[in-house]
Amino acid sequence: MTSILKKYTYLLFLLLLPACYAQQSTMQQKDSLKFSNKIVPDTIWREAYVALSHYPELKDTPIEFRFKKNIKKSFMQAQPKVGGLFKNRKNRSYLIFINEKFTIEDEVFDITSVPSEVLIGWIGHELGHIMDYRDRSAVNLIWFGVKYVTSKNYIREAERAADTYAVNHGLGENIIATKNFIINHSKLSDSYKSRIEDLYLSPEEIMVLINESFEETFDD
Ligand SMILES: [Zn+2]
């Protein structure tokens, strides 16, 4: 009887060992985070790290991820920090607002219930917006903001630009995961789904983009 008990204790020990190692290695990874000027909440740092690693251009760009309650109509939102808008483009800093809890027609969504690969796609898309903002002057950004809130065509263009940046930075699969999560999620309302379908690239369009970016790499 005791030998069986011993055997089980040993087995349990063996099973727990990799878990301890895994914990240790992620800790080390966090400590050696090679990005500077980033503020990331603990609950999403892994996903932010993976998404950021696809954008070496943003290595030193100041970006703060901040939870916010009730962002209208979306999970996340990227924008330049207003205070630094007129700074030199290189020193400009950005905010990515994230809805910790997200309500669509009385149905509450929680960030922790979103799968990692989907979250990485979402963050990758927001980083795509920042890539787009980086090339714009302050005046252009203000004009961009005005057009974004007044023109549906303009929203479509901006969202497609962000998706395209993400796909070209190797996050195509994650962007597709994000789309499928929205489209297939039974809890999301049809009006939200059709808004997404209207304004964003479809999974099929993203596949075309992924194939194109592969062909380009092949041509080089
Ligand atoms: Zn967007």
Describe the overall structure.
- It is a single chain.
- This protein is of the alpha/beta class and 220 residues long.
- The chain has 2 domains: 1-32; 35-219, no CATH class.
- Helices cover 60% and strands 12% of the residues.
- It has 7 helices and 6 strands, in the order αβαβββββααααα.
- The protein has helices at 2-31, 45-53, 116-134, 138-150, 152-184, 190-199, 203-219, and strands spanning 38-39, 63-68, 76-80, 94-99, 101-104, 107-110.
- A 4-stranded mixed beta sheet has the order 1-2-4-3, with helices on one face.
- Helix 2 (45-53) links the parallel strand 1 (38-39) and strand 2 (63-68).
- Helix 5 crosses helix 6.
- The longest helix is centred in the last third of the chain and has 33 residues, at 152-184.
- Residues 11-32 have low confidence and may be disordered.
- Zinc ion (ZN) is lined by residues 125, 129, 159, 162.
- Keywords: Signal.
- Residues 1-22 form the signal peptide.
